[in-house]
User: Fold this.
Amino acid sequence: MPTPVIIASGGANLASLRFALQRLGCDAPVTEDPGLIEAASHVVLPGVGAARDAMDRLRAAGLVDVIRRLQQPVLGICLGLQLLYTGSDEDDAECLGIIPGQARRFSRSARLPVPQMGWNAVRKVAETPLLEGIDGESYAYFIHSYALPEGPQTCGVADYGGVFSAMVQHENFFATQFHPERSALFGAAVLSNFLRI
Assistant:
């Protein structure tokens, strides 16, 4: 049985994420304890809010280097995906630097308000364990103003005035720009696949 933990990176989605993992049979504590994080079978890095604030919190907890060194499967969610990259245009934040790239703000338009908030199609573009047994296009719940362009680590894309990375994988680091804990059966399948890695 997997023994995942959720990094206490702030945000209101922690309770819904815990419930989603409980429905899959895992009671994942929310923690800033480096020892618990390093000993976990799987680590989830969620995030809601601003990149700089989230990084300040991780630095204050002494977790930046801990996360960079993790060898077990790690799943970034929403802002957690962006934190895995070099940086974000949001307040010119310096992020974890595990994956090269810079999060950019969506262009505002009358047709596409920022933030993107709601359901959007996710299309698989590369093989990843997160999409094992999931074919074709699926719908997931997004809420974000910044996104990463498609790149070598991209395994799923969505389109919001242009294609962006909805799912990425780099070595043992995986991430979704959408919220799997709010994405119905598709999200549950992604979380279940992550716990099987």
The chain has one domain: 5-196. The mean pLDDT is 95. The two ends are 12 Å apart (CA to CA). The longest strand covers residues 116-124.
